[in-house]
């Protein structure tokens, strides 16, 4: 087209030139005629007149006059003059006379003479004009024909250029397709067979070579249609089961739909990574309804073991979508090989999305991974029996979970890691997992709520390297540890924690700084309800029941405040070890603790307010301590001190059954403004200040002591009576008779 446009102005210029030439040709005879209409030119001379020659003739040869010669100087004859007539004006010839020659006009045959033009012939002019017009028309036809040929040539050249460009574009597209196919093959583990479903074609790739391009009708493609596009042995259908022996990749804009007509899809695999016939959504969409996708050995068709490097998997790529309803993903995913990472059975990658509804994920390496995905919906999903973690949330956004269960996985039931996300961690339960039910690692600002865990082997919840994390309404049943915080976690708030059974309800490891536990209940912990090793730990409105120890403050802990703690039953209430600092117990309520309601070896511990009922010992201190405003009732021993440093009890009220205050030798003790009632109110060296009240224990306590003794006596009496009946008791002995007549 460009060449044609370039030649058209040239043709127009040629036609315009021909037209101008024709106009000049037609106008030339008219100009000559106009010149002749002015009359013949008159030749004049200085030596007399010559007879006029006919137009267009030359003077006869040999008659030319001799050339004029100038007279010698001084001999010039006088000029000839005509006699005047008296009527002619000067300078005119009389009528009928021969005009006088003009001495300045060249004569014929002399230099400078110009022959007057011949008179024009109108017929000749017409013939010449017609001839010129005919010639101009011929020239115009020839130019038009040339222009036509030039335009045709330009058009053919433009078409050739366009064909060449189209061929080059097709070749470039083919080269790009080959290169893209190769890149896709490289990036996906170099499978032996690879099918790429595009919007208008299906590419068949073998060992990295694009061997076939199969055109297809745009739109959704079914599994049966995909089978027709591929070589015969790549997909084998047997009833409602399809065996797939090629990796399948969807490109942008494609949609692969698989429904109940194909209930089971077996993806081939083997010992090498290139054996895996995995599915990648690419930028396309995969829709499953009532379908189970699993792995299969090429020979036996049995599911592949989790150790097979070529076990296939399903991956939702960037921009892709997977929607699965009433479906399953089982025995998928490959282990890590060398320095590389393994592949999860089902994975949503960056920018992918979709939904899993009433779907099971079972026996995969890692069950399900959401890695920087967007708006994935999980509803009634069960992830179970994975080799590693069950569900992994890593930097995902907008994820919603409802009735999700993680059960019996080899690692954590649910692992939250990677980039921080504003997605709430909620809507699932865990049980029987090999590590923790839920592990939150390296997160800032995470929100954990409404999680129920049971029977996981390591514990319910692990918080590692977290900051400003809030946990609410977390339930742990029969967990070794209900909640475990460690590795420099800080700013943790736990509210509404409920643990039952297990070894420990809450463990605050020594690297944790800043944790608060509020409004929580812990029951039946076999070691401790709460074990504190970190710093800046606050417990408020916490209830611990029937645990071996309510709260243990371990060596290295510091700045621990226990406020409104309630301990019911169990062996010990609060145990503060040596090597701790800043322990403050406020408004403690301890009821019927078996041994010590408070046992402290923490220097400078403070016990403020609170009530202790029952138990062997109310407060047992082995380091300096301050006890203020505490009430102890019904304990065998009220306060027991073995501290080498001063213990000060102020405004305490002790009603014990045995000893009120017992200060062992070498243990200084100061008692001020207090009331101590017991069979032995004070034992040891005790400094007294202020107004103190010492007496026997109240009658109700004496009565409490006497009633068991009376009951014991009655029981012993009954046992004695039973023994008497069992072994014959005491029989009455009769004296022998006295013989009659004896003396």
From TrEMBL:
Record bears the keyword Transcription regulation: no
Entry annotated with the keyword Transmembrane: yes
Extent of Basic and acidic residues compositional bias: 128-158
Name of the protein this chain belongs to: Right-handed parallel beta-helix repeat-containing protein
Signal peptide: 1-27
Biased composition, class Pro residues, residue ranges: 52-82, 91-109
Annotated region described as Disordered, given as residue ranges: 31-159
Gene3D superfamilies in UniProt: Single-stranded right-handed beta-helix, Pectin lyase-like
InterPro entries: Beta_helix, PbH1, Pectin_lyas_fold, Pectin_lyase_fold/virulence, TAT_signal
Keywords: Membrane, Signal, Transmembrane, Transmembrane helix
Pfam families linked: Beta_helix
Highest taxon of source: Bacteria
Regions crossing the membrane: 696-716
Biased composition annotated in UniProt, kind: Low complexity: 31-45
Phylogenetic lineage: Bacteria, Bacillati, Actinomycetota, Actinomycetes, Pseudonocardiales
Segments forming domain Right handed beta helix: 341-447
């Amino acid at each position: 087209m460009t060449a044609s446009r370039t030649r058209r102005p040239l043709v127009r210029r040629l036609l315009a030139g021909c037209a101008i030439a024709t106009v000049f040709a037609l106008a030339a005879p008219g100009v000559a005629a106009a010149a002749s209409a002015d009359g013949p030119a008159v030749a004049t001379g200085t030596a007399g007149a010559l007879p006029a020659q006919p137009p267009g003739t030359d003077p006869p040869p040999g008659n030319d006059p001799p050339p004029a010669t100038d007279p010698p100087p001084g001999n010039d004859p006088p000029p000839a003059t005509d006699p005047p007539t008296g009527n002619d004006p000067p300078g005119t010839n009389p009528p009928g006379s021969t005009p006088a020659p003009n001495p300045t006009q060249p004569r014929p045959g002399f230099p400078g003479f110009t022959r007057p033009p011949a008179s024009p012939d109108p017929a000749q002019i017409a013939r010449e004009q017609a001839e010129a017009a005919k010639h101009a028309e011929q020239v115009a036809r020839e130019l038009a024909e040339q222009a036509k040929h030039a335009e045709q040539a330009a058009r053919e050249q433009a078409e050739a250029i366009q064909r060449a460009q189209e061929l080059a574009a097709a070749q470039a597209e083919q080269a790009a397709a080959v290169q893209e196919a190769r890149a896709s093959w490289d990036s996906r583990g170099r499978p032996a067979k690879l099918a790429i479903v595009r919007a208008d074609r299906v590419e068949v790739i073998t060992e990295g070579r694009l061997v076939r391009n199969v055109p297809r009708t745009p739109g959704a493609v079914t599994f049966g249609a995909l089978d027709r596009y591929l070589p015969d042995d790549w997909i084998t259908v047997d009833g409602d089961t399809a065996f797939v022996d090629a990796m399948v990749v969807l490109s942008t804009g494609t949609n692969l739909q698989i429904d109940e007509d194909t209930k089971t899809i077996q993806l081939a695999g083997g010992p090498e990574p290139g054996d895996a016939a995995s599915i990648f959504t690419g930028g396309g969409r995969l829709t499953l309804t009532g379908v189970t996708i699993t792995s299969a050995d090429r020979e036996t068709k049995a599911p592949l073991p989790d150790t097979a490097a070529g076990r296939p998997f399903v991956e939702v790529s960037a921009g892709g979508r997977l929607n699965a309803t009433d479906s399953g993903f089982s025995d998928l995913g490959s282990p890590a090989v060398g320095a590389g990472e393994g592949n999860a059975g089902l994975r949503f990658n960056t920018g992918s999305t979709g939904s899993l509804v009433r779907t099971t994920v079972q026996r995969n390496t890692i069950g399900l991974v959401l890695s920087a995905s967007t708006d994935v919906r999980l509803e009634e999903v069960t992830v179970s029996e994975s080799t590693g973690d069950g569900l992994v949330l890593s930097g995902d956004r907008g994820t919603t979970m409802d009735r999700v269960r993680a059960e019996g996985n080899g690692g954590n039931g649910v692992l939250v890691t990677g980039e921080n996300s504003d997605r709430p961690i909620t809507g699932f339960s865990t049980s029987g997992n090999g590590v923790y039910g839920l592990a939150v690692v390296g997160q800032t600002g995470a929100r954990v709520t409404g999680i129920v865990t049971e029977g996981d082997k390591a514990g319910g919840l692990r918080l590692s390297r977290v900051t400003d994390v809030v946990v609410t309404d977390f339930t742990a049943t029969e967990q070794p540890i209900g909640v475990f915080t460690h590795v420099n976690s800080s700013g943790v708030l736990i509210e509404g924690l409920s643990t039952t059974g297990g070894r420990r309800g809450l463990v605050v490891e020594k690297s944790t700084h800043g944790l608060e536990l509020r409004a929580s209940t812990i029951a039946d912990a076999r070691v401790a309800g709460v074990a504190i090793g970190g710093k800046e730990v606050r417990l408020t409105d916490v209830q611990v029941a029937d645990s071996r120890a309510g709260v243990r403050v371990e060596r290295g802990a510091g700045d621990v405040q226990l406020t409104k703690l309630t301990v019911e039953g169990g062996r010990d209430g609060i145990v503060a070890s040596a090597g701790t600092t800043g322990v403050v117990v406020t408004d403690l309520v301890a009821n019927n603790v078996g041994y010590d309601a408070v046992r402290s070896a923490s220097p400078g511990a403070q016990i403020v307010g609170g009530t202790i009922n029952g138990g062997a010992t109310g407060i047992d201190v082995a380091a300096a301590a301050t006890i203020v405003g505490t009430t102890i009732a019904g304990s065998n021993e009220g306060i027991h001190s073995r501290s080498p440093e001063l213990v000060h009890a102020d405004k305490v009220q002790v009603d014990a059954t045995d000893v009120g205050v017992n200060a062992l030798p070498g243990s200084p003790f100061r008692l001020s403004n207090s009331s101590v009632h017991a069979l032995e109110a004070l034992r040891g060296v005790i400094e007294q200040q202020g107004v103190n009240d010492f007496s026997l224990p109240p009658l109700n306590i004496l009565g409490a002591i006497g009633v068991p003794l009376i009951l014991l006596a009655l029981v012993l009496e009954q046992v004695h009576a039973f023994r008497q009946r069992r072994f014959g008791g005491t029989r009455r002995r009769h004296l022998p008779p006295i013989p009659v007549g004896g003396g």
